[in-house]
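Sequence only, no structure available. Ideas?
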Amino acid sequence: MRDVLGWRRKFGVLGPSTNTIVQPDFEAMRPVGVTNHYSRIFTPDANAVSNESFRAGAEKIAENVLDAVRGVMTSAPDYLVMGMSAVTFFDGAKGADKFTAGVEAESGVKISIGSHACAAALRAYGGVKNIAVLSPYWPVMNTEVARYFGDMGFKTVRDIPLQCRSWTKIAEVTPAQCRDALRKLDGDDVDAIVQVGTNLSMVRLAAAAEMWLGKPVIAINTATYWHALRANGIADRLEGFGRLLEEF
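Reply:
I predicted one. Tokens follow.
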């Protein structure tokens, strides 16, 4: 017998307790028969995030991930979805693989993570070599993001770290600020733009930006949820979230 609401799949979603964007984003993209069961990673808000403190703060969050995994597994999910991106970019592709292996060993089920999902999305579009990156992070973290994408065969030619001063302030970045950043990142030398940072609201703006920029614009929440759906054989095409969910 299957869960009466999650009769196709039950997803356990892991996200920082300070994150207010990823949960509604994933709900908006949820097809019928799929349910999302959110487990919060305890995250003390930091009101003075800086270039010096960003990685240390993110690593502190990472230490609490397995507690959230153990909590959500009591709902017997079929699959896990990581709703935080920074920790999935640490130490390049090797670090992403290590993170994935640790969670899967603890849970006994597979997981989609933001870094690998974005790389898979770029490959799905095809023809992408040079990218630009938008993040709410600080420069020290954007360096890690560029390192990861380099390991995966993509060159980051330009990036903008919005340098948000707290975890909760990431959710306060406006669509207008993101739109202006996308315009600064775009250029003939860029094949695609990738937005990372799951507490940055970009899924609908990225879809609109694809039309006026004429190239892939990948929001990490879209990529991660798309990856989870496709990994579970759910091929529903969803409108309003860009070409990734509409075509691939």
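The first strand starts at residue 9 and ends at 16.
Hope that gets you unstuck.
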